[in-house]
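Lecture 7 notes: from sequence to structure.

We start with a single chain of 409 residues. Read the sequence below before looking at the structure.
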Amino acid sequence: MAKKVCMVVAYHPFMDARIFKKEAMSLQKKGYNVTMVVPRINGRLFDIDGTPFKNQFRNKVFTHEGIKIVTYESENSRKPLSKVLSNETAWESQGFNNPLTQLAIEENADIYHTHEYLSLFAGVGIKRLMKKRKGKDVKLIYDSHELTPDPLDPRYPEETRNILKLKLLTMLEEVDYVITVSNSIKSWYLSQIPKLPVEVIYNSPPLAKNYVPKTYDANGLIMGFEGNIDNKKEGKEMIFGISEICSKKIDFKFKIIGGNRYGDSIIVPDHLKRNIQLTKWVDYHSIPNHMKDIDLGWINLDDVENSLNHTYSLPNKFFSYLNNGIPVVVNKCHEMEDFIRTHQCGYVIEKKKATSQDFADAILFLHDNKSKLKQMSSNGRKVMENIYSWENMEEQLFTIYQSLFSSES
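Now the structure, written as tokens:
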């Protein structure tokens, strides 16, 4: 009988690229029986852009692309899951009695794969109660998409961050494997618990098919951005500023694949409408087609000094650009800077807080040095083919799962 895996999700959308499109689908392909327990908010599931599904996925339990989806009301789990901050003696009586934990237990899986701080807490409850109620030892994975708590996050007082960290370290004692998304985050975990089994599975996409190497022999440049336009991270005002400066010097366009959440449109100033192209949100598998005409990829994480997660970040879009042979232009963030300098696949602005002018200067420099761009493009694609594509990452995922099952014997 196929081993059963249960993805335990506290707040990600159920079709999240990492959780559903890559990990769940890869495990299903490998022969595992995969279920996901995912949240509804006000009775609705949400698409990746944050808009609620109105006429789809209304059943509490359904199957999508071969994956069993079990849903629960997020509001009913919020308060008990917050008991993670309480004394551990209250966890079982007050914290684990929530729909996420209980529905996951009903799945009677062999491995429970959690994806957030609160779903890890649910996972600890699952592991303890499965042993207590059924005498079954299950394996628990914590897929740490980021560091929670972020040691630099100013939104939480230092005392709160210390409590969150203490509870995290307590929960990690019951985790069988930690998966994370960058070497820096892996190093942080090992600095806390040196013998913790932890491995990096990057947020990289499947290798783009029908790839055609870029020649950079046309006039002008097209800058690309994939994902959510967030005024705090990569705000539209900076996109407008970059486009304003560059379009006065060269034939320049800025292509946005994605945009605002909740389906809201971006209002482009009239004088920039010929320079800015909006595709809105597109199907995950169609992203490579939308990237074929992009020359440079843009990432600006503008709050590095107040976020260790930004410093350690290697976001989905970073690998998406490289997958399509697109060099990346970034501000100074440790993990992306180290990657780019190692593989010579992009350009790092020597500022943690870069301006529109800083990015424009980098773009104009690269426009005048297209031989550099061509080499960066080739380097990025090759490193994806040889090391970082999802086809390589899923083999690491399979190895982790096999090691957990092998440890049972």
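Residues 221-388 form a domain with the Rossmann fold fold (CATH 3.40.50.2000). Keep this in mind for problem set 3.
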